[in-house]
């Protein structure tokens, strides 16, 4: 018979076969409900899962939004525009020669004021200004050449170098202004000082870095990280896992940054499930193992098998995809020149699994959907991330960036206590950074 | 039982008629699922798919164009193949290159082989081979139609069929030798 003649030749052989053994699931009473009133299969749990992820996604977006909209710096002036108030003045007697004063400052002066005395004098004619550290003992200096003439003779020697002890609860600017009548205050005249306007401080405030928004695209090699009591499970091949990142960086100082955002990542890998069976039974002539008897026709059929110890059986392989949204929170340090910048960042990353597609195997060799097995079962995944980023500034506000990074899971990705899964990832991304001004 | 009357009543949502139709064609649906190697634990799912489609599209059946059994078989085969494609996606692709392509020189004599043994021989085939063999040799699809159904090329269908029949022939020859050896033991 030629192959053309074989087309459909066996069609009649399979008509009118006897009904196989009864299966309760196939009874009409059970099947009618499934056929005539088909229930939406697992629709409710799917909706709940979707709602769960929308809820998490919403929280993440709110957090990111709040972080983005948080005022990084209202004004580069470290002192509030509001009139600072001298809320405490210490002893003003010449004998004690101690002054305690605190000027409350609204803005985060502690971040911008240097640790030591920086500068003095808005102008020789106007004031003496010192910025001091908490508890720092400093020496004031004369303000103008007319100082000595205006001093009370009894205080002149002391005022030449009066000792001022600042007992602040925090760093602050101490401003000693000119008295209304001219000259600088003497120690016993300090309570006559007007409230000072302490803005526009002339000392050079070290500028902060610039906030930025970066979008990058790339991918990496993913190692699925099976360990422990799972010899029957192995990742056969790791495909390129693409990822898309939106990252916001907020300056803490000139060089230190806080980096966060959202990553969308597809883990692609192929699993092969192997089993070394010490007592594998294979079809092989020579040994009668089982005789099957057809109860309808009475026909008997013999199956020949033989035991082949130590046989490696590859069960099957399957292409899997796990989609994940991640939120990293990294602390970064950046070295920058005019055109180039290099930064290193480290911190945790929280991954939220959105979908799992594919098939896997349980310890009892049962093939199941990836979404139902313990592997990749945990939806929340903590990992540690380390990355290096190179920036090349192409315009004043846009730079090209290249990023390489690595990740290692902190937590077990498997929901099974027996199966340990701690994946690792190495990858790179390219993209653009937009400086926010 | 007049099948056309049963179908007519089914269209009127008569539960008794629906049951009659189901019970009459269930054995055939199960035969199709067995031929295509659907695991017994999934048979109910495939049967559900088949009869859901049958009852949904029953109004489109035109007795003038052909027999109901032919129409039913088309649905059963397509639903079973769809199911297998979803569950056994890997085997369709990965096992294509297992055997070198050979021209089908030896004849395939299946008339004398008991049907039950044919089921066993089908079960021994990889899913891809089994599907193509069933579609061509049992269900009478052309290679072009198989290619459309499985998303492969007609030449790949021909190649898989040639390999499948070669495997089947070897398997049946092996079984025959074993039986002869047993008789003389």
Low-confidence stretches of chain B: 90-104
| Portion in helices of chain A | 10-25%
Care to count the β-strands of chain A?
A: 19
Our Rg estimate of chain B from Cα atoms comes to 19 Å
Output the number of helix runs of chain A.
6
The proportion of residues in beta strands of chain B is under 5%
Q: Structural class, from helix and strand content of chain A?
A: mainly beta
Task: Average the pLDDT over all residues of chain B and give the rounded result.
Answer: 80
Strand order of the largest sheet of chain A: 5-8-9-12-13-16-17-19
Distance between the termini of chain B: 51 Å
Characterize the structure shown.
The complex is a heterodimer of chains A (about 425) and B (about 180). Chain A is mainly beta. Chain A has six helices and 19 strands. Chain A has an eight-stranded antiparallel barrel with strand order 5-8-9-12-13-16-17-19. A two-stranded antiparallel ribbon of chain A has the order 1-4. A two-stranded antiparallel sheet of chain A has the order 2-3. In chain A, strand 10 and strand 11 (about 300-310) form a beta hairpin. By secondary structure, chain B is mainly alpha-helical. In chain B, helix 1 (about 5-10) packs across helix 2 (about 15-35), helix 2 crosses helix 4 (about 70-85) and helix 7 crosses helix 9 (about 155-185). Chain B is globular and about 55 Å long. At the A-B interface, helix 2, strand 11 and strand 12 of A face helix 2, helix 3, helix 5, helix 6 and helix 7 of B.
Keywords:
heterodimer; A: 437 residues; mainly beta; B: 185 residues; mainly alpha
Summarize the structure.
Chain A has helices at residues 3-6, 28-35, 43-69, 109-112, 147-150, 156-160, and strands spanning 127-132, 137-139, 163-165, 172-177, 211-223, 226-228, 233-238, 240-251, 256-277, 280-293, 300-308, 311-336, 340-357, 359-361, 367-369, 380-393, 398-409, 419-421, 424-436. With 437 residues, chain A is mainly β.
